[in-house]
Amino acid sequence: SGAISSLQRQMEIQESELRRIRSEKELLQKQLREREVQLQAVSDKFCSMTEEQRQEEIVVMMEEKNRNLHQVVTEQESRLAEQGKLITELQGTINQLRAEVVNTRLHLLEQKQLQKEIQSQADALQHKALQTSVALEQITCKFERYRNKIIQATFSVEGSKEPMGELTDNELLEAMQKIINERAEFQHMLKSKGSK
What we know:
This is CCD27 protein. By secondary structure, this protein is mainly α. The chain has three helices and no strands.
């Protein structure tokens, strides 16, 4: 937004400068027309003189007027050419600034769209994380129930001692393995005596 405001301010300054130069150009053109009117007035004045006076006056005045007018025309043409060049440059700058404003706005729209997509992905991940957390809690509860059943089955065997405190998984596995080994030995002993 700051970049767009800055570009728009620059564009307004350039457009104001363009209007000023165009106004100055119009003023120069008006002055040139006024000079032409003055020249026409002098020409009309000469028409009222005698032929001889006219010729003498014309030679002197026309030479002076021609010099002055030629100088004025040259200066004004030079200034008009400079102002035309400046107008072209300013118009190019204004067009460039307008293009930059459009590009900046497009970039901002893309950023907003990307931000929406990222937010949507973040929401989806958060939802998935919540579902995973609930599933993990359910699995943990099932595992604890299953573990408690194993502990109860393992230490309900005749001759087993109740655990003194909280059992680790390794201690539970060792107790189960001990029961399995004892039953395997007992079964082997029965088979060796021929009992079914």
